[in-house]
Structures are given as structure tokens and as C-alpha cells.
Amino acid sequence: MGQKTIVGVTDAVASQRAVDWAAERAAARGDRLELISVLGDEGGVVGEGEVIEDALPLTRSLLEREAERVRALGVPAEARVERGKPVEQLIEASKGAALLVIGSDYRGPEFGPARGPHGIRITAGALCPVAVVPDLDLTGRTGVVVGVDGSEVSELAIAFAAAEAQRTGEQLTAAISWSPVAIPLSVRSYPEDYLQNMQALTEETLAISLAGIPQMYPDLDVRRIVERSYSPDTVINRLASHARLTVIGSHGRGRVARFILGSTSQQVLARLATTTVVVR
Q1: Which of the following CATH numbers is that of domain 1-137: 3.40.50.2300, 3.40.50.620, 3.10.20.310, 2.30.30.240?
Q2: Phi-psi category of 123—alpha, beta or left, where left has phi over 0 and alpha has psi -120 to 50?
Q3: How far is 5 from 98, CA to CA, in rounded Å?
Q4: How far apart are CA 153 and CA 257, in angstroms?
Q5: Predicted TM-score (pTM) above 0.85
């Protein structure tokens, strides 16, 4: 039996999209799913325990319906309801998983950023890669985008993205950006040779990061993007707006705390352009 993917399930539309995405991937890879719903623990409010008890059978019914949908695709699926804090329970469940999948209420730029901190906290604390599925119709999307910065976790993102692109026969777009050092406003421009050197050094970083990919996947179509930008997340989400999948590292250079997401990762997740996997 293949690897286990955990899916956090609620009654939201975005959750259904997350289940669908996870089931489709599991069916292609021969993996199995474990669907988990979490009911909040009693916080000392009178009557809350009764509310939770009343919700248990409805939640179990929801989970079993979702599990049956998954099994109809030929994917082994288990379902369980947990009591406690959703963030803590899903992070705990991620210990034994190859991937954790959650839905996001993000529906596009016209609706503003995704609401609530739970997705960020789950992604920051999980012990496995996390796929965040937006409430968007991604029909017809193709290609995998990966954000690169030369860090160790970036190498893991490249490996994940390349494997996904190879599996689906899609193009892999590897994107890296650079920005010049800040200078006083009185300085009107940067020396041209400095800008050229920054571009060349960043191209070299990307080339080194991708050096092993042609040997591992000789038939994989890899597109390389090197851009000057003060906002790497803007570059990533622009490229991802037509892609099926984006893969990013949980943090860049210098970030070591497990419960800290890098600023680029947070901004990408705040305005999801497609399903996005955060690796660590």
C-alpha cells in the first residue's frame, strides 16, 4: 500500500475541493487517505459540551460520505473524528503522513486575502509537506511552478515539484528573483555592471539548484525564470495563475524555527493562485 495522506475535512466547499484534489492524486500514485474532522474541545462555557455531543453524529456522517466518495475512485480511505483544537490535532496527525491537505476559503483577488490564521498555523507547524487547496476552479490549469532561493528547503521544494511534474507529464517552471541593495533616494540609479552581476549570480544559483534534475528526469521540460523583484511572492503567484500546482519552501535562508513561515511563503498563501504545497 502507498503512502498516507491526511485531509482535514469540514463542511465548507473548500474542504470538498481539498478532498477531491487529494483523492485524485492518491488514485494516480496508489496512496491512501485518512480523513479527519476536529470538533473543538470544551472551553469551560456552559452548554458547550452538549453542543459538541450533538455535532458528533453529523460530523461522522459527513466524514463517511466523503470517505465513500474517495473509495468510489478506488482509493483506500479511513475517517475519524477528533476532539480538541483543530490546529493542534492536524499538526499531531501530520507526524505519520507523507502529505497533509487542507482547504482554503480564498476565492480570488477580488475577494481579498484568505480569512483566519488556521491555515498559516497548520502549515507552519506540520511535520510533513502541506497542500493548501483554494476555493477556485482550476479546470484546464497545467504546469508546476516552484519557488527557488538556493536554501536547503528550496532543494526539497524542487525535488517535490519535479517529481509531481514528471508524474503528470507537465512543464516545471523554476522561478527565482533578486533585488538590488537598498540605496539612498539621492542616488538616482544603480551601476549597470552591478545589476548585470546580480542577474548572473542569481542565474548561477538557479542552475546549481537544478543541476541534478536532468539526470533524474531526462525528459522533463524545465523552464527557468530569473527576475528582478522586491516581492518574490508576486513573481510566484503571477506564474502560478495559470499553473495546476505551486511548490514553495516553508522558509528561506536563515529561518530555522519550525513554527515560523518565511514572509514569502505567508504572502503566497495569503493570495493563493493555485493549489500550493509548502515543504519543509
Answers
A1: 3.40.50.620
A2: alpha
A3: 6
A4: 13
A5: yes
